[in-house]
Amino acid sequence: QELLSLGLEALHKGETVLRLKQGDPYIYGRGSEEYTWFEEKGFKPIVLPGITSALSAPMFAGVPCTSRGVSDQVLICTGTGRKGKAPEPPAYGEGKTVVFLMALHRIGELVESLVASTVDGEEDGGERRKRDVWPKETPCAVVERASCHDQRVIRSTLEFVVQAVENEGSRPPGLLVLGKACEVLKGRGGARWVVEEGFDGFEGLDDVIGLQVGAGEMRGMAAERENTAAT
User: Fold this and answer.
1) Positive or negative, the Cα torsion across 180, 184, 187, 190?
2) What DSSP line would sit under the chain, residue for residue?
3) What percentage of the chain exceeds 70 in pLDDT?
4) How far is Cα 228 from Cα 231, in angstroms, rounded to an integer?
5) Alpha-carbon distances of 106 from 69, 71, 166, 172, 223, rounded to whole Å
6) Which candidate, 137, 114, 136, places its Cα nearest to that of 187?
7) What is the pLDDT of residue 224?
8) Can you tell me the mean pLDDT for 147-167?
9) Per-residue b/e over 2-26, b at no fewer than 16 CB within 10 Å?
10) What is d(CA 200, CA 207) in angstroms, rounded to the nearest whole number?
11) Selection from 3, 53, 6 nearest residue 25 by Cα
């Protein structure tokens, strides 16, 4: 609220206000709430899309959220609901990839809820409802500090991921990816979990950019020579 008030104060002074967020402002970024808040004060915000970590972090970890014949659905969930309450876990789907944000601090409770066959339902008067559970052998990946030099990926299954995080420790911020897509490009080789350290996603990019810039300069020089010759 303090940031919003400061922004409103600046707007009344005729200043330009930039509300910069990580990821996409409409994916657990309270973007819609802030848009409405400013609009009600007489200022219509301009919203630019961002790239949510729910999609970029799995990519940097070598996890394609969709893959033909493996996963045709992507579900983005929060691991922490309003006032810290745990949200209802998603039902199992063989062709589904689920990305949990803000969930690693309660990963034990989350995994327990995913493999439970019933859930409490307030909308049903507190009755417990049946749902499809996630098999314990379902592949998953914990992706921490994605795209940073100290990025870490823990590849495991629902059966062992809690133990893996407890043994390896936490390196926030991070997220949990769940589904068969986690093993499309990289596997565990039969281990309970494997740990991958470091980030090399941009390796070789400087060379590619350099080649493109060089090629552009050469084309420019060639065009200049042609123009000179023509005159």
Assistant:
1) positive
2) -HHHHHHHHHHHTT-------SS-TTSSS-HHHHHHHHHHTT----------HHHHHHHHTT--S-BTTTB-EEEEEESS-GGGPPPPPPPP-TTEEEEEES-GGGHHHHHHHHS-SEEEEGGGTTEEEE-PPPPTT-EEEEEESTTSTT-EEEEEETTTHHHHHHHH---SSEEEEESGGGGSS---TT-S-EEEES--TTTTHHHHHHHHHHHHHHHHHHHHHHHHHH-
3) 85
4) 5
5) 31, 26, 11, 13, 61
6) 137
7) 62
8) 97
9) eebeebbeebeeeeebeeeeebbbe
10) 14
11) 53
**Which residues have CB under 8 Å from 126's CB, separation 6+?**
120
Which tops the pLDDT comparison, 216 or 21?
21
Structure tokens that stand for 203 in this block: 């390796």
Residue 53 tokens read as 């970590």
User: Tens digit of pLDDT for each residue in 29-53?
Assistant: 899 999 999 999 999 999 999 999 9
Stated length of the chain: 231
Is residue 181 classed exposed, middle or buried when 0-12, 13-18 and 19+ CB atoms within 10 A define those classes?
A: buried
pTM of the model: 0.82
Tokens 């970890």 found at: 61
